[in-house]
Structures are given as structure tokens and as C-alpha cells.
Write a structure and sequence with these properties.
Layout: H1 2-35, H2 45-50, H3 112-118, E1 135-144, E2 150-162, E3 167-180, H4 182-189, E4 203-223, E5 229-247, E6 256-274, E7 277-289, E8 302-303, E9 306-315
Length: 320
């Protein structure tokens, strides 16, 4: 009996000690759990995918059918490039040509500015009427107004041969018909009654002929009331020749005729009205010896009449 009680007490004490031991172990674990930090929030899927194992390819994470294409971005609007001016097709493709019409391959690198300066020239359009190698005949008429007692009406012919567009040979001759001026008529009409007053001039011009060269200074174009472009030339004229004059010696009633050497300097404007026709306005001055009616010789100085003429010029056909 006594042994049964002892074994029962032993079993109860052993159970109590085991329960106390288990309770102490649980109480010791509670502070450690309280001191642990709270669990971090779940990272985004992108970060988790970065931690994926290296042996597993990234593309294998999603099925092939679930792949998404990258978003398309529209290009920014650009200004349209300015079109280059049309240039002649000298060489190469049109894309290789610059503003001067020369292929890039034909101009050494670094020589573009030098080439541009060489090409910097000023031009006008091509002549519509070509004169070089052509002949022309002119029908002229005009007046010599700078004589106090006579006004000379002139009429004649002219010839030109054009060596080039700027140089030509000219030959012309004119006959003059003298008319008394208002001064002479007034002097003769105011004579005293019963007296005859006759104004006698020692020398009057009868005609002239010259040959020389024409030097073209300028060629241009103009428009008259918008009817179209017309061409013209401006030139200087130099020549030598002779004049025929009628002279009257003092005390001699019958006039005589003289022939003297003469020089001519002038200029003209020539307006082209067609390929073979032109109008020319001439101004030239003659120089020849003046006649001394007392001595009867040409020693009285130099006569300088000015002639204004308008001529209609006909050209031969251009050379082949």
C-alpha cells in the first residue's frame, strides 16, 4: 500500500515538473518573438522577376502568346526641305549637283568657295539680233541746224560691215540742201527802200562723205508699254573723209566749189524692230577748214557743223 502511494506521488510530481518545464520554455520564447521586426511588404513583380533563378530565362516566365509589342511612338513633325533651283545637267546625278550645276565629284574638297567666286558673273540674256558677219544699208535723212544764215536739209546712204558685235566699219555720204534761216530773211527784208541788200556767205556746205569705225559701248533691252522686249545698241563713231563746199570770194559774184578733208566724231542709238530692220538716231560733228573770202584760201579756222540724222537700216541675212 505504502509503495503504491509512493509511485502515485512520483508520477504526479514528474507530470508537474514536466508541465512547469514546458510553461517556462513558452514564456522564454515570447520576448524573442516580440522583438522580431514586422515582415516587409511584397515587392513588385518586376523586382521579384529580377530575383528569379539565373538558369531560368526571362522569356520563359510568360507564355509565347502573352507577349506584348512595344508601344509605337510617332516621329516629330519636320519642316519640308526647300527645293533647290533647277540647274543644267552638266554631269552626275541631279542629287549630286549643287547650285552651280556642277557635280560634287568635279569640285575638289575645300574648293567650293573658290569655285563659287569664279562663277560669280553678271550676264544679260542672249541677243535676239546677231550682227557679227553681217552687212547693213541705211537710208538717212536729217538736218544741220547750227548755221546762222542757212539750215541744211540732208539726205544720203550709209553702209556698215560688222566684224563683231562691238566693232563695225562704216561708210556714209549725204547731200545737203540749204534753206535760208529766219535771220537772213529778216535782214534782206529790212533793206532801205531803193536799195538791194544781199547777204553773202563766204562758205556753204554742199555735201560730205566719211569712212571709219563704230565702237559699240552698250547693248540693252527695254519694254514699251509692256508690248514686249526690244533691243538697242549705243555706239561711238569715228571717221575721216571730205566735204564739198560752195565758196564766194570778196568782190566776185560767181561762187566756186571746194573739196576739203574732214573729220567726223559722233554717236548713235540703234533700235531693232526686227531681225533685219532697225532705226538709228545719229549725232555727229564735222570738222573741216573754213574759207577766208579775202585771201581766197581755207585759212579762216575750222568749221564745225553738227548733223542730226534718222536712218532706216536693213541687214543682210545672218551667216550660216
Amino acid at each position: 500500500m505504502r509503495s503504491f502511494l509512493c509511485s502515485s506521488l512520483f508520477r504526479r510530481s514528474w507530470r508537474t515538473a514536466a508541465a512547469a518545464l514546458l510553461a517556462g520554455t513558452s514564456l522564454a520564447a515570447l520576448p524573442a518573438q516580440a522583438q522580431e521586426p514586422p515582415a516587409e511588404k511584397a515587392e513588385p513583380a518586376a523586382e521579384k522577376s529580377a530575383d528569379a533563378p539565373a538558369d531560368k530565362p526571362a522569356d520563359a516566365a510568360a507564355p509565347e502568346g502573352d507577349k506584348t509589342e512595344p508601344a509605337k511612338t510617332e516621329p516629330a513633325p519636320t519642316k519640308p526641305a526647300k527645293a533647290k533651283a533647277a540647274v543644267p545637267d552638266m554631269m552626275g546625278d541631279t542629287g549630286d549637283q549643287d547650285l552651280y550645276g556642277v557635280s560634287d565629284d568635279a569640285v575638289p574638297p575645300g574648293a567650293r568657295m573658290e569655285w563659287a567666286k569664279r562663277r560669280d558673273i553678271k550676264v544679260i540674256q542672249k541677243r535676239a539680233v546677231v550682227k557679227e558677219g553681217r552687212h547693213s544699208v541705211s537710208f538717212l535723212g536729217g538736218v544741220v541746224p547750227n548755221d546762222d544764215f542757212w539750215t541744211y536739209i540732208t539726205g544720203g546712204l550709209g553702209y556698215n560691215y560688222y566684224f563683231s558685235e562691238d566693232l563695225a566699219l562704216h561708210v556714209q555720204g549725204a547731200y545737203t540742201y540749204d534753206q535760208p534761216t529766219s535771220l537772213r530773211a529778216k535782214l534782206e527784208s529790212n533793206r532801205p527802200e531803193g536799195y538791194e541788200l544781199n547777204v553773202r556767205l563766204p562758205q556753204t556746205l554742199q555735201g560730205y562723205a566719211t569712212a571709219g569705225v563704230d565702237w559699240n559701248l552698250m547693248h540693252g533691252k527695254f519694254s514699251f508699254f509692256g508690248t514686249g522686249l526690244n533691243e538697242f545698241d549705243a555706239a561711238l563713231s569715228f571717221g575721216i573723209g571730205g566735204v564739198a563746199t560752195r565758196v564766194t570770194k570778196k568782190g566776185v559774184l560767181e561762187p566756186a566749189y571746194r573739196f576739203d578733208a574732214a573729220g567726223s566724231v559722233g554717236s548713235y542709238l540703234q533700235f531693232y524692230i526686227a531681225d533685219r530692220w532697225a532705226l538709228r538716231v545719229n549725232v555727229h560733228q564735222l570738222y573741216y577748214p573754213a574759207f577766208d573770202d579775202v585771201e581766197g584760201t581755207a585759212t579762216a579756222g575750222v568749221s564745225r557743223p553738227i548733223s542730226f540724222t534718222l536712218s532706216l537700216t536693213w541687214f543682210t541675212a545672218p551667216p550660216e
